[in-house]
Amino acid sequence: MCTRPRPRIRTHLPSTPWLFLAPGLLISAAFGLYPFLSTVAHSFTDARTLTGGRYVGGANYRELIHDAMFWTGLRNSLLYVLGVVPLLVILPLLLALLVRRHIPGITFFRAAFYTPVVASVVVVGLIWVWLLDDRGLINALLEGLGFGRVGFLGDPWLLLLSAMAVTVWKGLGYYMIIYLAALAGVPRELHEACAVDGAGTVRRFVTVTVPAVRPTMVLVGALASVNAFRVFSEVYLMAGPTGGPGGEDTTLVMLVRQVGTGLSGRVGYASALSVVVFVLTLGLMLLVLRASRREGGA
Questions:
Q1: What are phi and psi of 187, to 5 degrees?
Q2: Which of 21, 182, 209, 250 has CA 20 to 30 A from 33's CA?
Q3: What is the pTM of this model?
Q4: With respect to CATH, is domain 78-251 assigned 3.30.40.10?
Q5: Strand, helix or coil at 14?
Q6: Domain boundaries, the chain
């Protein structure tokens, strides 16, 4: 009786996995790593839009320290983080708790809350500009109620707060979906046990829901912090390319655009600004992660 030979196990070379990864790595290097390294290199030159420039060392970074617009942009970016992130951590969680209930018509409300996420930020910004304009719907309603017109787009602080409101409104649905996924993993038995002990809705939220979704809250806080610090579209659409009255609402990313574009754009100085934005964003991420680790260790 003859036996069939066993099939030989084909071994792969150590380089085989890298061959599969090569296309993705090349694309990432071409469109991610190379632009980043090029930006860092240009930050040490006085390059302009149509000229290569020459090496100037840290002159661009020293100029940042004495640039009043840089400090204005840094102030506005930090205020944006402080004003937007707490709302985008708490409000989507409360919204997720509302829409996770299985009641008739809840699918419609889930879709309605998520609609701003898929809408173009340009369309959303223009809609809010029309609403908040001096002759817009909101001022018309205020006049109808006997109040005076409010210069939402004329006052620097009101304009910044209005842009924050747009960011919060557009991001609610996105972070709501993240919280819905996290809430699906919370054991129902914990809520039932607390209910048996006489705990009300607020107490169950504080003692059961919040501890269970705390890692997700940290993730949402990190994502919202980065997006808020790098905000551009909302402020640009509502304040205009000049950054509002006197440039008082300019953010760091808007300042990069103002300095580095045009035929006489200062590419070197804009690159230095971009590097600073990257470092500050990375530092913000590390602070959020460190705070979460401390809380988790405690």
A1: -60, 130
A2: 250
A3: 0.83
A4: no
A5: coil
A6: 78-251
